[in-house]
Amino acid sequence: MRTQVVIIGSGPSGLLLGQLLGNAGIDNIILDRVGKAYILGRVRAGVLEEGTVGLLEQAGAAARMREEGLLHDGFSLAFNERDHRIDLHALTKKRVMVYGQTELTRDLMDQREAAGYQTVYEAEDVTPCAFDGERPFVTYRKEGVLHRIDCDFIAGCDGYHGISRKSVPERSVATFERTYPFGWLGILADVPPVGHELVYANHPRGFALCSMRSATRSRYYIQCSLEEKVQNWSDDRFYDELRRRLPAAHAEALIVGPSFEKSIAPLRSFVAEPMRFGTLFLVGDAAHIVPPTGAKGLNLAASDVHYLFEGLRDHYLDRSELALAHYSDRALKRVWKSVRFSWSMTMLMHRFPEGGEFGQKIQEAELDYLTHSTAAATSLAENYVGLPY
Ligand code: RFL
Ligand code: PHB
What we know:
By secondary structure, the chain is of the alpha+beta class. The chain has two domains: 5-73 and 93-176 and 268-345, FAD/NAD(P)-binding domain (3-Layer(bba) Sandwich); 181-265 and 351-385, 2-Layer Sandwich (D-Amino Acid Oxidase, Chain A, domain 2). The chain is 37% helix and 28% strand. Strands 6-5-14-15-16-13-17-20 form an eight-stranded mixed beta sheet, sandwiched between helices. A six-stranded mixed beta sheet has the order 8-2-1-12-19-18, with helices on one face. A hairpin with a 7-residue loop joins strand 9 (124-129) and strand 10. Helix 1 (12-23) packs parallel to helix 6 (101-115), helix 9 packs antiparallel against helix 11 and helix 12 packs across helix 13. The longest helix has 23 residues, at 327-349. Residues 45-47, 198, 211, 219, 292-293, 295 line the site of P-hydroxybenzoic acid.
């Protein structure tokens, strides 16, 4: 079998890249280790930058998001029992779109199926080969049979645990990493959100976040220890803890109901450099991870797709290699700014075991600064809505 680009991974980055390439007449095949239902069962991101929304429009997969997504003009920082609104639109003239990653992934899958572009789910032992030369290929096993796809390029869109980054000789990659001494316990429940916008709360008992998927579905998170077990958290215990970390007005407005998803995610910052190895390109979580505090992971995956799509389109349609040659540098410049922002939001909002009272005073001073200085609030807002591509 032969195609122009093999895409490893059918998450948001692989699907978005595949759709943009396919619509530009560039052949591609997506391979994923797991099935469609498994991918759609993952509950992850919820906040999209305008750039991400624009790419979904460009991919022709934005119709349902435009109908059902919620445009938010701001969010709140809650601390010392009070709520302080960051007016994103007044500060930046931009908004964010609240639309779940699950829905976005479903829309891209539907669009791909309608266009007739090929995806192989439950492909085992996917292996990128010979990418140090101009004749790369990818092998995989399906129902016991070994397959080989020859191609021009391989896009490694297979997430943090994927095979693409691991296939590169260790001496060719530099990695930068920070782990945080806590996780997020999150639930999803069909109850109306506490307010119209997201609330990020800094509290002596730990961070809490009130997010949403729609006017009738809420997504709540609380900071927890890495040793916590989901089974120790009944819904009642979760809501009690959440209530204690919110200002009274929100705590009183909290409507509770049974959760249908509950999970713990560890927090990590990670970057692999470079993001290109010959004819293999790393995209999204395969190359970098950010803690979810700044809502940047999926949005960074989308900006990588933007740079790689430009490079591949110029290569095939204009015979120009410039954008492809600069893919890694352009993507990494933006990646590091989001890594910095996600790290700083994480440091600002969480209780650190070793932070002590000094750490708490520093956080309070910074929160006070952010909510009383237009310059500081503008910097926060322009990072939150997304830096330009
Ligand atoms: P994904 O989504 O991990 O998809 C990778 C795909 O590759 C497949 N795969 C393989 N296929 C073939 N062979 C192999 N060996 C393979 N290994 C893996 C996998 O099955 C999968 O289908 O990576 P992608 O596409 O780069 O997308 C990245 C985003 O999923 C991620 O950055 C975000 O979810 C992060 N994130 C958030 N991002 C935001 O922009 N805004 C948010 O509000 C936000 N909230 C979050 C988040 C992530 C969270 N968790 C659980 C990590 C909240 C949470 C709690
Ligand atoms: C979410 O809705 O899952 C969400 C929203 C904002 C974040 C992280 C996660 O910063």
